[in-house]
Amino acid sequence: MGGMRMGQRRSKRTRRAACVALAVVLAAATAGCGPAARTPVSATWDDLFGTVITVSLHDAMDEGEADAVLAAVRARGEAVQNAMTAHTPGSEIGAVRAASGRAPVPVSEDTYGLLTLALEVAALSGGAFDPTVEPLVALWGIGTGAAAVPAEADIARVLKLVDYRRVVLDGTDRTVYLPEAGMGLDLGGIAKGYAADEANRLLDEAGVTHAILDFGGNVLLRGGHPEGKPWRVGIRKPVPGEDGYACVLSLRDGTVVTSGGYERYFVAEDGAVYHHIMDPATGRPAETGLLSATIICDNSARADALSTACFVLGLDGALALLGALDGVEGVLIASDRTIHTTPGLADVFTVADESYVWVNAP
Ligand code: ADP
Ligand code: MG
């Protein structure tokens, strides 16, 4: 029964999912294991956060219960998206931008809390992750269909508006104030992770013990495989046009979030490739020699922000940042196809493609 329902819901979307996700759960189901083998009940949505989201519940549940859980997850995802997407009309983040240079704007607990976390990671990363990057993202127009390399003067002008230290939060009445007209917020590097955390919280409340949440590059795992094995999460080869996985993590719980320059990009008239992760230090797409940065920890929003930060920082900066944090691990893939991991991954990490070299293999 579950299998049929899953088949229906996944119709047509599987191919796109395979192209978009950066970290992917591999071969969750095992064949021929007798009556204990349960087919997951899944839902796939391709209209949230500009990506493909799949939630798979691996507990034995009755259909009505599973549907109710999935509907609640979807509704929560929509609410997070609507409040926090920079260019959704009526979003809280849009209202803060519209009032920049004029007035503080009251926001929901959700948005206030996530912005607080975003500013924390901004400070930790010295502004490599910076939620005030919005005017810069808008100037480049990456992902809008009208992307183009801006004039140097425009980059310089807009960069003056990018500085997380200028955001004024007031916890008493939960307001956000951007002190200069033209400043804006972009939570695109963290909101998906937050939606995954919220989905995880709903599954927890519903008593779901085994599940996989895949929010297009943000994977969140609950409780390992029902048969007792860990889940296997693949990290994609971070090169456009190369399919398959560079490496695999075996994990029961936690979140695996990858940022890479190969996911959203445009090719300029001169053939140069520009991707969607901006370096606030230069005003241009980050070019630091990393092809992807993956973070493993227990909070998907934090992992999301940190993965973007690490990508911008480059190998040495990312390793320094991760070394200073407890409970946060990372996998960094450089353009020379070397893979660098933090020490806590030694027992759960394997290379899946021989053209990549794990330089600090134990
Ligand atoms: P994705 O959303 O593609 O999985 P990321 O989590 O790395 O990838 O987020 C990239 C998005 O974050 C961009 O599309 C943009 O909206 C925003 N962004 C780009 N550069 C930065 C930055 N330096 N700091 C914070 N957010 C950024
Ligand atoms: Mg991110």
What would you note in describing this structure?
The longest helix has 24 residues, at 300-323. The strands form five sheets. Strands 2-3-7-8-11-16-17-18-20 form a nine-stranded mixed beta sheet, sandwiched between helices. It has a four-stranded antiparallel beta sheet with strand order 1-9-10-19, with no helix packed on it. It has a three-stranded antiparallel beta sheet with strand order 4-6-5, with helices on one face. It has three domains: 1-85 and 190-218, no CATH class; 90-177, ApbE-like superfamily (T-fold, Orthogonal Bundle); 230-362, Roll (T-fold), CATH 3.10.520.10. It is of the alpha+beta class and 362 residues long. A hairpin with a 2-residue loop joins β7 (211-215) and β8. It is built from nine helices and 20 strands. The chain is globular. Adenosine-5'-diphosphate (ADP) binds next to α9. The site of adenosine-5'-diphosphate has 20 residues, from α9.
